Amino acid sequence: MVRFGVPENFIGDRLPNLLCQFTRAFPAVRMDISVSMSMDLRQMVDADELDLAVVIALPGGAADTVLRRTRFVWVASDTFDVAPGRSLPFAFFPSPCINRQIGVSALDGTDVEWHVMFTSPSSQGLNAAISAGLGITVMIEDDVLPGMRIVDGQYGLPSLPPAEFVLLRRPGGCTPAVAEFGKLVLELP
Description:
- By secondary structure, this protein is an alpha/beta fold.
- It folds into two domains: about 1-70 and about 165-185, Periplasmic binding protein-like II (D-Maltodextrin-Binding Protein, domain 2, 3-Layer(aba) Sandwich), CATH 3.40.190.10; about 70-160, D-Maltodextrin-Binding Protein, domain 2 (3-Layer(aba) Sandwich).
- It is built from six helices and nine strands.
- The protein has helices spanning about 10, 15-25, 40-45, 100-110, 125-130, 175-185, and strands at about 1-5, 30-35, 50-55, 65-75, 90, 115-120, 135-140, 150, 160-170.
- Strands 1, 2, 3, 4, 7, 8 and 9 form a seven-stranded mixed beta sheet that branches. Strands 5-6 form a two-stranded parallel sheet.
- Strand 5, helix 4 and strand 6 (about 115-120) form a beta-alpha-beta unit.
- The protein is elongated.
């Protein structure tokens, strides 16, 4: 069995191809796939509930294998605007979420008045709120959709750190099937 975790924003067209390739090569191996928030996936690997997981992280995790580098950005709709002197509205995933944690930590170090006005556990919900112009959020640059714009440096927003998609492995040994699946993840474009 291979127990694999992945965040929703890493799925795209990569995951179906990866799963298809693996299940064709190893039809006798059972898969257990968990789609969740990166911080939850990290805890699941640490608790021996997953063999492998792709997570979004800040650079510098010593034991992490970097799959792709990107950056966190502030994002709003093309039509978003807020009147001067008004509290900035934000839309976030619920805690624990690295995007939320990065955004709140950055905002706490400023004089910007802000409030959370929308919370959703789904990317679709968050994207809908942003597209409707309800607020600002933190995303990785690769996730910005048409109709959205990066607002780094606007509205008094501080800069955000770089990010990485990394592959985590369960501490201890792994089965041959887990090792082969890990190799396929590393070969993803």
